[in-house]
Every structure is written in structure tokens, then in C-alpha cells.
């Protein structure tokens, strides 16, 4: 088993939350960490694919996208 140090405030929140559920603190932490890593790995993959598209020249200007979408004078933010 591995251990990690948690700030007391986070540990208190975790204990309060799991006291009202059937989940154990360890199970909740494992699920939260798995979900976060899944998301971060997916995001990194998407960024890398986007950068590959830019490198390969597979990009469109804002004007060409507006034209493809049939937008004439989209308002600027």
C-alpha cells in the first residue's frame, strides 16, 4: 500500500463526505484519481493531435470557417 500526505482541510472534507456514504476514503480517492488521470491523458492526447494538425497544415482561418458555416458578420467578443 502507498501513502500520500493530504492537507488537513482536504482530509476533513474527505472524511465528512465518506461518513455519509458507503464509500471508503480510499475508494473515493482511487476513483477521483482515476477519473482525473483519464481526463488529463485524454486532454493531452487531444492537444498533441491538434499540434500535429497545425504542423501538417491542417488548419482553417477564422474567415474560412465563417464562410463554411454561412456566417457573414459574426460579432466579435
Shape: elongated
Proportion in helices: 55-70%
Sequence stretches where pLDDT stays below 50 over 5 or more residues: none
Q: What structural category arises from helix and sheet content? A: mainly alpha
Q: What is the average of the pLDDT values? A: 93
Q: Give the biggest beta sheet.
A: none
Distance from N terminus to C terminus (CA atoms, Å) equals 51 Å
Q: Approximately how much beta-strand content do the residues carry?
A: under 5%
Helix-strand string? HHH
Topology, number of strands: 0
**What's the total helix number?**
3
Radius of gyration: 22 Å
Set out the fold topology:
Blueprint (H helix, E strand, L loop, with lengths): L7 H12 L5 H31 L6 H8 L8
In short:
By secondary structure, the chain is mainly alpha-helical. The chain has helices at 8-19, 25-55, 62-69.
Amino acid at each position: 500500500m502507498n501513502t500520500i500526505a493530504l492537507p488537513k482541510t482536504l482530509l476533513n472534507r474527505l472524511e465528512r463526505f465518506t461518513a455519509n456514504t458507503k464509500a471508503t476514503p480510499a475508494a473515493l480517492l482511487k476513483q477521483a484519481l482515476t477519473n482525473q488521470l483519464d481526463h488529463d491523458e485524454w486532454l493531452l492526447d487531444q492537444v498533441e493531435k491538434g499540434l500535429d494538425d497545425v504542423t501538417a497544415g491542417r488548419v482553417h482561418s477564422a474567415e474560412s470557417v465563417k464562410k463554411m458555416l454561412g456566417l457573414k458578420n459574426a460579432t466579435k467578443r
